[in-house]
Amino acid sequence: MMDCTERYEKQITVPVFGEEGQRKLASAKVAIIGVGALGCFSSQYLIRMGIGQLRIADGDTVSFANLHRQILFSEKDADQATPKVDAAVRELRRFQKDARILGVRNMITRENIADFVADSDLILDATDSMPTRFVINDFAVRRNVPWI
After folding, report:
1. In this structure, how many other beta carbons lie within 10 angstroms of the beta carbon of residue 101?
2. Under DSSP, is residue 4 helix (H, G, I), strand (E, B) or coil?
3. Is 103 in contact with 85 (CB distance < 8 Å)?
4. Full residue range of the structural domain in which residue 51 is found
5. Is residue 64 assigned to a domain?
6. Alpha-carbon Rg for the chain in angstroms
7. Tens digits of per-residue pLDDT, 63-90?
8. Rounded to 10 degrees, what is the CA torsion of 39, 138, 140, 38?
9. 9-47 confidence digits (pLDDT tens)
10. Is the pLDDT of residue 108 over 80?
11. In CATH, what number is assigned to the domain containing residue 126?
12. Would you say residue 8 lies in a domain?
């Protein structure tokens, strides 16, 4: 097993980040809503940087129209109409096999956002849906959870 100091050495050596920043990141819980282009990119980098826990939600399946910009998916995923969350979790585990990842195959709604976000420290909106953004905003304001 690789020493965490070695794995994250480049970001730990950044003065404003350091070992304390790495510890905070390793204990952080982030909920990403949407696994399109932005969700794929963001989830990959959070996993590679050592995020403590990642929750991702999307109710869509992979299609060929996704492949030019959604970097976690393959032609095989499009052929099989694989749920985006399943393909994303599979690929993210290739980058860090012990990562704590929860994938949810649902669109986020007023009825399920509380269960999905749970005790997350941050919500990342990676959707292309204004109604979903309003759901996220309302929840984040009510619960005082930061969201991007």
Report:
1. 20
2. helix
3. yes
4. 18-143
5. yes
6. 16
7. 999 999 999 999 999 999 999 999 999 9
8. 10
9. 999 999 999 999 999 999 999 999 999 999 999 999 999
10. yes
11. 3.40.50.720
12. no
